[in-house]
Amino acid sequence: MTETPLALLESTAETLMDKAAIEIPQDYLDGLQAAADDEDGDLSSFVLKAMLENYEAAKEDRRAMCGDTGVPRWFVKMGNEARVEGGMCALEDALRRATAKATNGVPLRPNRVHPLWRTDHDNNCGIGAPEIEYAFEPEGDWIDLITVHKGGLFGTDYRMLFPSDGIQGIKRFYLDSLMAFGKRGLACQPAIIGIGLGGSKDICMTLGKRASVLRTVGSKNPDPRIAELEAEFKELGNSIGMGAMGFVGKNMVVQCNIEVGYCHTGGMPMSVHAFCLSSRRAVARIWPDGRVEYRTDPDWFTPYMRREGVEWAPRVEAAE
To answer: Which domains are present in the chain?
Structure first.
């Protein structure tokens, strides 16, 4: 079995760090442009216009699109036959090195510190940083590297609802969260909103965060009933009178993505996450023969990732 070269993984990771910080994904750019065309609030319109101009300047000058470059994190997806030169620990070392190099090279703001001693290594690395999450697919020898630079302060919330709260309870918490994000400056709008429903508390938070950062603008949950909720929640979020950066307007939500996981019968956990107007993500698929394909769609939530049964159905059945 051919192994993917470690040097290729590290150099690709460095390139991804640069792309994520500087080049806004086209799907989000299109969503932001649509919001700008539709916005009629004076200050919200001004902010949207300024941000669109800023994105062009950042790409032209090859500089980070926002002064706060968030906290870099990694998502790694591997085909079942993929192998890494030196093993998975070597891969994690390579991703940490790429993060440290990018912090000083792009540059990125060194946002990572020890929670108590405030120790700062000036490279966005430390205990548990950067986060590295994994997923796998049944076939293939490729490796997908996905980097996301997400704000690490506010713009998230969690609540344990009861099944009897139903859709109305979900809507109430959703609107409560958006009002807090806007009025208290806890997130930079307009944003991609991710909602996690189900799982345990930690999984619920993970589902919501992944929904916000690993799905593209224009995507839909494959469950048509959830897809309807996504469209309804986008419209609902844009009806509360807030726009860009919490100013008066009607474009607070560029997209609302909902992901679910099975949970305890007695509860209905819910999390809400805002992926801010500097929607920073970049993806590369790497093959062991040295080929590298860059893209901006993480393609994380595949049918295999959303499977319900004990065993994964064969490809033919899955396609049906």
So the answer is: 6-21+63-151+281-319 (3.30.1330), 41-59+153-278 (no CATH)
